[in-house]
Amino acid sequence: KFQTFETKKNPTTLYDNVKYSIKFGNKFFTISINRKNFDRLRNIFEKILFKLTNKKQDNGNHILFAEFNTSRYRDLFKSAFSKKILPVCRRRPLIWNFQTFSTIVKSQCILPQISQNVNTLSNTIVVSIINKNLESLEKSTVFLNSFFKIQNISIWNMIRPFFIQLCKKRMLQAVDEISFMTSVFTEYKIQSAALLSESGFHEKIIINLAKRFHIPTCLIQHGISEFNEKEYRSFIFRGNLSLKTDKLLTWGYPLKHSALLCGLPEKKIIMLGSPAHERFFIQNQRETNSKFILLTIKSPSQYFVKNLSVSINEKFEKIGRAHV
Questions:
Q1: What is the mean pLDDT of residues 79-97?
Q2: Cα–Cα distance between 147 and 125 in angstroms, integer?
Q3: Which of 64, 65, 45 is CA-nearest to residue 105?
Q4: Is residue 45 a contact partner of residue 95, using CB atoms and an 8 Å limit?
Q5: Whole-number Å distance between alpha carbons of 194 and 186
Q6: With contact defined as beta carbons under 8 Å apart, do 258 and 227 qualify?
Q7: CB–CB of 258/288 below 8 Å?
Q8: pLDDT > 90? residue 215
Q9: Would you say 242 and 268 are in contact if contact means Cβ atoms under 8 Å apart?
Q10: Of 294, 295, 245, whose CA–CA distance to 270 is shortest?
Q11: Which of 110, 105, 104 is nearest to 73 (CA)?
């Protein structure tokens, strides 16, 4: 039996707030900014950056970088083809400290500046269509009760107000983002698009628009993902496979092997190493000798609630310390 609790009138969801980590001396502080204020600050900073970096517009072919961490991939922004990079960061800030500001300015990359004012939230026609579709969805009670079910117990009545509110909010945001990205693909000559995941909200929009504009896309490996048959659905859900993009760029053989087990064609996979860790390995090759071995380990648990207990993590920590 489920016990119901009174919820907030305006519950927060993923990406409703953006968190910043600020360092003062040797201490780190985290501040949270709501999405509306974040968008305002982002627009101000991007206009300043646009004036500093885009004095001479390059009309050549560009490579769209979707939601790339400027600090982690700073070597790419400093590479020989940096002037072709068109960074699009809608979910995360492009700059947040002096290092990232300096990286973008020195890279001379092209920052998208859309001439038209993309704002569909005030468009009564769009709002009317969304509300009409949501009303139709709410009437499908038989389907919704059967779909939102745990151990043959329906939870639809419990989540219904929050779910409808979330759908309305995300649909309006999606229309905004689709309009913005359509303008980017229309106003800039994009040669290809690079992404770090296929499952992200903004990444899905970019992938679908790229297909419409006949622009090739590639998925770049951004972390270690161990695959086994039991985790197949989770592996796909995290967007680690190139199911919708045209190419998969891996660090090496492990992800390539996992992708092949999932049925991905070998001709679609390219092993190029990790652009985010190249600096680390080059520096350590110079400073260390062959007596040291880099040991990397996976997470102590799988992606299930029952595996995220304190006892499992404490056991994992003890094993790690015993081998140091």
A1: 85
A2: 30
A3: 45
A4: yes
A5: 17
A6: yes
A7: no
A8: yes
A9: yes
A10: 245
A11: 104
Please check the confidence at residue 91 and state whether its pLDDT lies above 50: yes
In whole angstroms, give the CA distance from residue 76 to residue 301: 32
Mean pLDDT of 168-186: 88
| CA gap 180, 119 in Å, rounded | 9
Q: Transcribe 218-281 into DSSP letters.
A: EEEP-S-----GGGHHHHHHTT-S-SSSSEEEESSHHHHHHHHHTT--GGGEEE---TTTHHHH
Q: What is the pTM of this model?
A: 0.78
**What pLDDT, on a 0 to 100 scale, did the predictor assign at position 57?**
55
Q: Residue 136 pLDDT more than 70?
A: yes
* pLDDT for 97: 82
List Cα–Cα distances, 34 to 14, 76, 95, 120, 171, in angstroms.
Answer: 11, 30, 17, 20, 18
CA dihedral for 92, 97, 100, 101, sign (positive or negative): positive
Distant-in-sequence, close-in-space partners of 323: CB < 8 Å, separation ≥ 6: none
pLDDT for 120 equals 47
What the block records as the tokens of 102 is 């300096």
pLDDT of residue 27: 76
